[in-house]
Amino acid sequence: MIERAVEDGVAPGVLLADSAYGNSSDFRARLRALGLHYAVAVAAQTGVRLLDAKGRPRKDAQSVSDLAWRIHERGGFRRCTWRQGTQDALSARFALRRVVAAGVPQREQEPLTLLIEWRDGEPEPANYFLISLPEGRTKRQLIRLVMQRWRTERVYEDLKGELGLDHYEGRRYPGWHHHVSVALCCYAFLVAERTRRFPPSARRAAEAHAQPLSA
């Protein structure tokens, strides 16, 4: 679907994905071959190599989990608030490091940003993200970017809870395709009606227009 979207001229954006996609080095490499940048979650055991002060990869690879603990021991995590929630401001502790992915062909290696999230009261980091965007963005900008996936999760929960997306029990693709298509069309109608009755503010409209792609 991503390849078809690119072929059809859909405006490119930063692609967001959970670790089910982000763990695949082939998936990440294909996105870059298509000219897309990504900000994807990866598993704790994902291997990386830190970049030195001159931007050269160090020889020793380590898991993002081990790296997070080393950063934690040195007091390298900093608190950041990325938006106001329904009740309180949403914040956690984060750390950034420039890395390359370990275990991938050298021709596919490129500098990446590793973003680590450690939530209050948790015994270990909650999330690890690899981001292919070049340097120049602030930590808060990168955090806000990866946190946009909550919109995808919210849509998925609404589709299941309100429109029965997960109620299909058939075994044939045409039936499944019809069921999903109807659910998505109904959801689009509900969103359009909600927007018509409760128009978003100019700021919210601008944010929605600039949303990244999500998988």
UniProtKB/TrEMBL annotation:
<protein>
    <submittedName>
        <fullName>Transposase</fullName>
    </submittedName>
</protein>
<dbReference type="InterPro" id="IPR039365">
    <property type="entry name" value="IS701-like"/>
</dbReference>
<dbReference type="Pfam" id="PF13546">
    <property type="entry name" value="DDE_5"/>
</dbReference>
<feature type="domain" description="Transposase IS701-like DDE">
    <location>
        <begin position="1"/>
        <end position="87"/>
    </location>
</feature>
<dbReference type="InterPro" id="IPR012337">
    <property type="entry name" value="RNaseH-like_sf"/>
</dbReference>
<dbReference type="InterPro" id="IPR038721">
    <property type="entry name" value="IS701-like_DDE_dom"/>
</dbReference>
